[in-house]
Design a protein that fits this description.
about 120 residues, mainly alpha, globular, binds heme C
């Protein structure tokens, strides 16, 4: 009796480990992400605008009448102006995009961090 039970619990532990490891792949800490996974010097047009389109502008753009539309990310100057909100909700926190939308990968967050650190130059 003891043996099958042990096997089951070992399986449960292994499954839990796999589940946790699985979470870590797309959503890891910036400290652990491969530095080569993000461009060294991201530009707005090539890197940041596509990220905003993927993750944010469906709800945060001109003409998006809902609550999210009050905060815009559909243009470089908007991204700069609303950076503190982006930082708190999508980089430091995980409340944006909402759980129904895609989650930013660690590489995407690193791209945003590097663009900001480089001086967040708009075209
Ligand atoms: C599916 C729609 C949707 C997407 C995609 C989305 N948001 Fe939001 N966002 C909302 C809504 C609705 C609100 C207002 C209600 C709330 O605060 O939850 C909001 C509020 C906010 C706010 C202000 C409120 C706060 O919590 O500080 C910020 C900043 C924000 N979003 C940033 C972002 C960023 C950055 C992205 C992309 C990484 C993003 N959102 C993607 C719907 C969305």
């Amino acid at each position: 009796m003891a043996r099958p039970f042990r096997r089951t619990s070992a399986f449960a532990r292994a499954s839990a480990f796999v589940a946790l490891a699985g979470c870590g792949i797309g959503d890891g800490d910036l400290e652990t992400v491969d530095p080569a996974a993000a461009p060294l010097h991201p530009t707005y047009e090539a890197h940041i605008a596509p990220l905003m389109e993927t993750y944010c502008t469906a709800c945060h753009a001109e003409g998006e009448g809902g609550e999210g539309g009050e905060v815009r990310y559909d243009g470089c100057k908007w991204v700069v102006r609303n950076w503190s909100g982006l930082r708190s909700t999508a980089l430091d926190g995980r409340s944006m995009p909402p759980p129904t939308a895609w989650v930013l990968s660690a590489a995407d967050r690193l791209t945003l961090e590097r663009w900001w650190r480089d001086g967040h130059v708009c075209p």
